[in-house]
Every structure is written in structure tokens, then in C-alpha cells.
Amino acid sequence: AAATADSCCPIRLLISKFNMTALVRSTPSDNSNKENLPGNAIDTLDNSQLIRLPVELIERLCGHLDCRSVAQLSATCQRMRQLLGSRVFWQMRVRRLLHSRQLPGAGEICDGAVQEEAGAPRRFRLPDELSSTSSINSAEDAADGGSGGGGDVDDLDDGHRWRRRCTALETAIDRFGDPSRSRHRRMQYGIGVCIDALQLLPSSCGLAAVGSRDQTFGLVSLRGIRSGAADADCFSYRDRQHHRGWIWSVAAHEDSVLTGCWDRVLRRFALHPAQLADAVMLGSPVLCTAWLGKNVALAGCFDRSAYVLDCRDIRDTRRRVTVHSSRPVLCVLPLSDHYLLTAGEDTNVCVTDLRASLSQPVQQFSLGRSRYLRCLSSQQPAGDAGDTRQIWGAVQHGGIRCFNWCRRHCRLIDASSFAADLDAAEFVGSDSVQQEQQQQQHQKLGVGNNVTCIDSPDGAVLVCRERHPMQAYLATLPPRPLAGWPNAVSVSCRDGVVATGSLDGDLQFWWRD
């Protein structure tokens, strides 16, 4: 009976009648290709039966196709381009996707502690919508006269951007919604050591840079991981001599890797061949590192300072950024060639212009309530032409904040403040009393609830906490939960590979063939 009902479904009958699979794979604008098409596909193209259907039915049919197939269908004729290439069509598709109850984690709020109430579903929006960054750019374009005429062209351009956003969300759901669908490999990096620092290098390198609390820095070969080689054979480089303390962070760029260590030394390792290239003593333990371009290294330290160093002369080109006056700098992130984002334990998030005063930020946000950002990650929103970057930050005792960096205006916007219910983006709830009780309980039990790492691959956000499963979210506000992954304290995602490090010295990798 189920099979009969499925075969009688009107949508499936229409898809079968018009042979949409053949239609999507064809290109009618090239008449020379018609001779290679099946006969029923040629009839479909010549009679134009599909485009004579009501718009609502065409949209319903496209709901059974993925974004790539819909994009191919929109390229078959002018009519399909107008229907399936508009901004409204893709906006509605994104709305349905974000609020679908068929998604992994549907009905949950963040960590699953709170369920949706009947008749009061959550509203999920993209961060750039909430921060009104797009409206700022549109207002400037209108002032310049760029929006006069050509409304159809502008609508199709917006549709293209929304299509890329929808594709990114679908890809994130497929990749992070179910870890069991990916190939998996676990290797022992060390025995009972915490892996605080982890970053995947570009696919051309095929390496993962790893730093742990037993003072070991290593480069792990992804080729060895995929081929099933023994754990010892997966190391392309291993250093246990140069570091004299915990390795807190690693940052990779092209052919170099930075390491930040508790011994107050910032080190740069070359990859070809793998060896220590430079080392410079800073004023205090190095807590975070990043690259600004090819030759400029960034470091945040325990002495409330961030350092900017030119690696071509790393010992004599040190510049000190002192916008955090009371507590250590925990995060450094380059926003552009001239702007630097820092966050510290003083609960402040600061933007500094490196061409101006290094002691006065050009922008500053205070998170308040004794909350501060433990880690930062950035992504380029899908469909954006480069004017906007999304900055995702993890709050120390639980929570996600999102900022939008508008490059055209050199302005940082707190997208989280535009959310209808900001506390919905918090892991442990909005009740401060409950938070304090939970934190005290964790301290008594010796169990941490602190956020340790965040990464933001396109369309998703991955968050690690001490002794908790890593949680995958869609990059929305509030964050849309997808799935829980194995426990991890560090994570890195790049080119379809997910790598995590644990408190017990285990490295785990997931990838698709």
C-alpha cells in the first residue's frame, strides 16, 4: 500500500511525466545537443509543457531537487531563468530550509536542553539579514545612483547570491548533519595529553598542524590518514625539543606555521623542509596566533598586548597593540590589511587600525556580564562579493556571538544584538543564577563547561566544549542545531575534511571520498 501511494503521488507523477532529470541535464540553448538527448526529453523541450505549468506547481516540483539541479534547470530557458533565478524564490527556499522539521536536530534549541513550545516555533535568520549590512550597502548604492533602472538584472544578481547561500546551507546540512555518513579515522597523538592547538593546512600541503600540552608540535599527513597507515607513519614531522611549555595555538599560512607557547616564545616553522625557521621572545605567554598576509605574524599575549611582527625580520619589527588595558588578549584576527580584531578577558572586543594609534581602538564592544570571547573564527558568507565577512566568537562559559565586518565601510556590526532573542544563542540558558550554579557545580565535580574552540566552515559553525560532544550548527541566528559529534576540545575544518583533538590525546578525522 505504501508503494502504491508513493507511485500515485502527484508530484512524483509530474516529475516522471516531464522527465525532469533529463531536462535538468540538458541545455536547450545549444541545438546541437538535441540529437544526444532521449526522445521524451526532446518532446519536453519542443512542446514546452513544463513551463506552461502554474508557477506554484513548478516551485513545488523544484522543492524535490537540490540547489545544483535547480540552478541547471534555471539555465534551460528564459522563462525558467525568470522563475527560478529571482531573489524571492531563493529567499523562500532558504526560509523553508531553516525551519524544516526534517533537519537533524529539529525541535531543539542549541544544546537540546530546551525544546520548542507548541505553536511557538523558533525563527532563524541569516546573520547578514539581522545586522542590516546589506541595507547599508544598498543605501550607499542608491546614493551613488547605482540602483536606477535594471531592476530585473539587480533581482537576478540578488537571486544568484541567495542561491549560493542556499547551496552553502544544504552542503553544511549534508556534511555536518550526520557524522556517520563520512569516513572516519582515529589516531593516538599522545597518551593522556590535551590537544589545544589544531589547524588543517591547504589541500595542496595535505597536512594538519598539531600542538599539545606535552610540548609536542607535529605535522600529520592526511594521505597517511586516508590510506590507513600506522599512527607512527602518519607523522611527516615531529618536534619535542624546542617548546618548553604548553602549545596554546597554531596558525598556518602557505609554507609556514606559527606556534604560540606558554614559554613566551613565538616560533615559526617552515614546511619545505619541515624545520624551525625563527623564534622570538615576547613579554609573556603567547595565547593566540594568526597571519596577516604572507609575511606578517600576529600574536596575543598574557601581558594584555597583541604583537604585530614582520617575519622577514622578526626580531626587529615588533609593534605592540595595547587596546586591552586590564586582562590578557585571548583572540587575534585580521579583518583586512590594515584592521585587526582582538578580544580579551576584559570582555571587550576591539577593532584597531594598524596605520593609526595602536593604543586607541577605532571600534569597541563590551559583552558585559563577565562574558568574554574565548576564540574567534571567520567565514566569507556564500554569495557575497567580498564586502562582508562573518566573525563567529565563542563566549567562555557558553554562547555564540556573531559579528559582520563590512569592508566597504570598515565597520564591525554586532549581528547578535539584532536577534529577536539573544539568549537563545546561549548554551547554558539566560538565567544568570542558573549559570552560576552550573559553573559552581562543574568546579566541584572537576568537569569543565568552558568553550575551548570554534570553527566556521561555509554555512556552519562547529563548537567544542570541555568534556562535551562537539556541536554542529547552521550559521544562523539563533544558531540552528544540526548534530552532536564526539567529544573534542579543538577542531579544524578545511576542504571537506574535519579534524578534532581531544583531552586524551586522540586525533580524529572525517572526510568524504
TrEMBL record:
It comes from the Eukaryota. Residues 47-93 form the F-box domain. InterPro entries: F-box-like_dom_sf, F-box_dom, WD40/YVTN_repeat-like_dom_sf, WD40_repeat_dom_sf, WD40_rpt. Residues 121-156 are annotated as: Disordered. Pfam families: F-box. This is F-box domain-containing protein. It comes from Macrostomum lignano.
